[in-house]
Design brief:
Elements lengths: L1 E9 L25 H15 L11 E2 L8 E11 L10 H14 L4 E9 L9 E13 L15 E4 L4 H11 L1 E4 L17 E11 L16 E9 L6 H14 L4 H9 L16 E8 L14
Parallel strand pairs: 3-10, 5-6
Antiparallel strand pairs: 1-3, 1-4, 2-3, 5-9, 5-10, 7-8, 8-9
Helix pairs in contact: 1-2, 3-4
Length: about 300
């Protein structure tokens, strides 16, 4: 067997999420209704069938970061183990990358396989990753605005003024460092005893953002202020980033004061319903830091 590292990006708007869902069935006519895992595994399987190699083999893709339905990514990682060819060599990574890329193009889906490389069997897409960098986009609009730029559909979280940037900056400072973030884990009451809620946030800040398209061509951009949240950590809990953004927005909007925000850290596990969890479509996985073990060499590759 040879392990491969797959780097890919996607717009998560129409997918059923990253991981395969129970009872999910792939349909060639509507592939975008499947999960990204199902699509990648289907593409790999067709590649193996074309190579006439282990047609009964079921590839199992393992991901570095399990994003929710609707979340986007510029750089996610996955690994998969594939059997060697009959001549004892492993499948050339460039062939696998090109085949998966073409498969996604022909399927007319917003998924791009950027790179594939052979890695040691000790590499794991999730456990060999040491950092994850997320971006969350918000657009602050004048009051009573009903329509937003069409190019921003499901790509940005729009909220109405007021929005105090100074307050937002102050709230962001509460998150940095090692703390108990139980209040920011969705469904924490259903987690098993001893579930680790102490995490380290390496960076969490907000800065002015930008539109996806030149406002010169769309008058609906008028009056909108864009902001980007940048969040970095080794790992996050379920919906943690979206709840972090939700608290900052609630304070900046005046729905929650700074003392109420601090209470979520003083009393882990509680949540303030005045802060509505930010939707998934404003969230982007920007980068995953990882290290490939050097104690083992990949199998022999023969370009053919």
């Amino acid at each position: 067997m040879q392990r491969y590292l797959i780097k890919f990006s996607y717009s998560g708007t129409r997918f059923r999420g990253l991981q395969r869902q129970p009872g999910e069935i792939y349909n060639d006519e509507i592939p975008y209704r499947a999960s990204i895992q199902t699509i990648l595994e289907k593409g790999i399987l067709r590649f193996l069938q074309h190579k006439k190699s282990a047609t009964s083999f079921e590839p199992g893709v393992q991901f570095s970061s399990r994003t929710d339905q609707g979340v986007h990514s510029f750089c996610n990682l996955a690994h998969v183990d594939l059997e060697l060819l009959k001549n004892g060599s492993c499948i050339p990574p460039v062939q696998l990358q090109k085949t998966l890329h073409v498969f996604c193009q022909k399927s007319d889906i917003n998924l791009t396989v950027n790179n594939v490389e052979a890695v040691p069997s000790t590499f794991h897409a999730r456990y060999s990753s040491y950092s994850r960098h997320y971006l969350y986009r918000i657009g602050v609009t004048p009051e009573d605005v009903k329509c937003h730029p069409v190019i921003e559909w499901r790509k940005c979280y729009f909220i109405e003024k007021p929005f105090c940037l100074d307050k937002a900056i102050e709230v962001c400072k509460l998150f940095e460092g090692t703390k108990d973030f139980a209040s920011f884990c969705h469904g924490i009451s259903g987690r098993p005893p001893g579930y680790p809620t102490v995490r380290t946030i390496d960076a969490f800040h907000i800065k002015p953002g930008r539109p996806l398209f030149d406002p010169l061509y769309d008058p609906l951009y008028s009056g909108i202020d864009f902001y980007d949240f940048h969040i970095k950590s080794r790992s996050f809990m379920y919906r943690q980033v979206r709840r972090m953004v939700a608290l900052v927005v609630a304070v900046a909007n005046g729905h929650i004061n700074l003392d109420e925000a601090r209470q979520l850290f003083d009393h882990p596990g509680q949540w303030n319903p005045k802060a509505m969890t930010a939707p998934p479509y404003g969230l982007y996985l920007l980068d995953v830091g990882y290290k490939i073990p050097q104690d083992e060499q990949p199998q022999r590759i023969i370009e053919n």
